[in-house]
Amino acid sequence: MDIKTFMGRLDSYIKEYPLEAEKAMRKEANRMKKELVSASPVGKGRKRKISKSWKMAINGNSSSTLEATLRNTSPHFHLVERGHVMKTMHGKIKGF
User: Among 2, 10, 51, 58, which residue is least crowded by beta carbons within 10 Å?
Assistant: First the structure.
């Protein structure tokens, strides 16, 4: 699911059920979190796995200000997400 589909579903939920907007947002954010977990690499030899480090928080107090935040708490997530040069101990580049 992409972000446009997510936003479209959320807007339709808010219009139909303004009192149930938080529950609907939580449901869709959990669905997105599950997809992120399944798409994340497991990783070998790391203390905190990227796939097990996804956290979600819902902020806002009305249906128009609700906001779901998904983040990853793994310390090496930025390296995997943006890429980095892999070097040997002697400085020879062995991959990206």
Answer: 2
